[in-house]
Amino acid sequence: MGSEEDALRKAQLVEERARNISHNVRCTECGSQSIEESGADVAILLRKLIRDEVRSGKSDKDIYNKLQEEFGESVLYTPKFDMQTAALWLSPVIFGAGIVGVWAYKRHRQKTNVHIMALDLIRGVPLTPTERETMLDLLTPPPPERATPFSWWRKWRVG
């Protein structure tokens, strides 16, 4: 009875590992589905190949390497990081850094008002807080009108 349970447990582990690997391998015929989800003949053969490799005791990395050698890097959903895929992997970081840079620049521009700095230089004496607030009220443009779906229609009719 113990050997049957061990055999069943081993079969379940093999199946679980094979399914996990199959979810990370792209169907070469469909392209948009993993071989686990695909019903194509190629996917069925690849699933069988993976199960055979798992049963023979190969590691996941060995199986992924074998699939990559036979079908190319595009068969894996997670490509390696190398010179060819660096732009793919680094683009979210570069995009995020660009957004943070634009945000920091706009925030810096809001805090440093050139007109007030020029008045400080011309007068030779810094503005008092009341004068500074008055100047900011005068020099800061009003916020842009919030666009509504038909605001262009009103502008066109009036104009």
Mind explaining what this structure looks like?
With 159 residues, the chain is mainly alpha-helical. The chain contains 7 helices and no strands. Helix 1 (2-23) crosses helix 2 (41-55). The protein is elongated and about 90 Å long. The model has no long low-confidence stretch (mean pLDDT 79).
Mean of the pLDDT scores? 79
Cα shape:
elongated
Using only CA atoms, what is the Rg?
Answer: 32 Å
What is the helical fraction, as a range of percent? 55-70%
- Give the number of DSSP strands: 0
Tally of DSSP helical segments: 7
**Biggest sheet descriptor:** none
Order of helices and strands, N to C?
Answer: HHHHHHH
Topology, please?
Layout: H1 2-23, H2 41-55, H3 60-71, H4 86-111, H5 114-123, H6 129-139, H7 151-158
Helix pairs in contact: 1-2
